[in-house]
């Protein structure tokens, strides 16, 4: 079953954890020095916050996405985006948001970043953003630019 994903950049992690814990009636399932995540069933959402972009003053919505339960579901979603003519940026076995995931990134017509992903393990580090991973590729291998921010998620 798919789960909606929202990632919000916040200036103060502790205050934001307190706010969202009250809003959701639940403590986060993951808390790190710069990151927190709720895996909620009502509403069915993977909601993450981080201070990764706080130094830029870019508080607010970073990206949205769809988390899937299998590599096959990820391939289906990425295939639909590509069939519709969207250019995607794909990542395999990437470390992001203290998790190991395969991902496919795309920007909607208004420029909002969407992440489709399958998470298959935990990680001890936050990882790299899609922009950092994309920068490591040869320019000809880059399928689609991803708007510059300092966040990733999973």
UniProtKB/TrEMBL annotation:
Any one Pfam family here would be: Glyoxalase
* A molecular function GO annotation: lyase activity
GO BP terms in the entry: response to cadmium ion
Residue ranges of the VOC domain? 2-119
Q: From what superkingdom does this record's organism come?
A: Bacteria
Lyase keyword on record: yes
Q: Which InterPro entries match?
A: ArsI/CadI-like (IPR049789), Cadmium-induced_rsp (IPR052393), Glyas_Bleomycin-R_OHBP_Dase (IPR029068), Glyas_Fos-R_dOase_dom (IPR004360), VOC_core (IPR037523)
Q: Which UniProt keywords apply?
A: Lyase
Does Transmembrane appear among the keywords?
Answer: no
Protein name in the entry = Lactoylglutathione lyase, glyoxalase family protein
- Per the UniProt entry, what species is this protein from, by scientific name? Phenylobacterium zucineum (strain HLK1)
